[in-house]
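WARN retry 2 of 3 for item q-0093 after timeout on previous attempt; input resubmitted unchanged.
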Amino acid sequence: MANRVWPKLVGIAAVITVLQLPLFYHYNRLLGSSANVVDNITVSPAQEQAEQKEIAALKSQYRFVTVSADHQYVAYLDSKNVLHVMDLANRQEVCAANNPYTVQYVEWIEDERLFVGEQVQPGDLELKTVDVPSGVQTIVTRFEGLPADASFTKITFSTYTNDIYILINSGTSSALYHIGTMSNVSLVPMGGRYIKNIAITQTGSKLYFEDYADGSFNVLSLDDQGTIRLVKRDAALVAVVGNTLYYGDINSQGLVTAVYRYDAATGGSTLVKTLAAPTLAANIEVTDSGAVQVNAPT
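OK item q-0093 returned
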């Protein structure tokens, strides 16, 4: 892989300040206690159709429309930078969080909290959590000294180990940060790669990521010893379900044409689905049972 991006990143290495260390006692509780717990909620076809219609309507009006893991809640950001959380079953708002800075990123933590990434000012980003249904906001950490166009790109985490990876990209560089169980925040050496996407395994033992180097999109893995291995060249990271990676073969336009399941033990891959039409990886979802679904572009 080419190292052309890394020298630029070294010159603007971020200064990280953990603003609330007591949060990580809270973090171990909120992530650890909810591990391996998924609410089994029975939804009728009519109700599911109504909820999908509601989500589509929200997407036509608001940004960061995001559904919780159990599909009970939907979060969205209004034009006044207020994050709303609505109960999908009764269409009632359960909380709202005013954000002092421009929101760049929203991601559910299971079904009871959200990560919210904000830009305090160019080159200065803040990550916090929002509790549901109380709406209480807690600062996780602050990233300073970044390029002016830096923004939160992806957050992935394991509810088993509480490992959290945070990808921050600018136009020409990537920075990957790790928060471990002892609350330490560290910059992960990635050899100057420009990283497009990340996804951690359920057990937290491996991070899969997609990079772009020398005109090629590639899927690679990073283990807990810091070893990076190539999984597939000319491919896109689609999803990680449990401990299993799903990646896509891509065409010359970077669109996925077929989805494969990767066996980390053998290094082999199995075709799961050939797509009817080339599709962006971001529009492909893999269910808990391993079925591939193509969603409408957002």
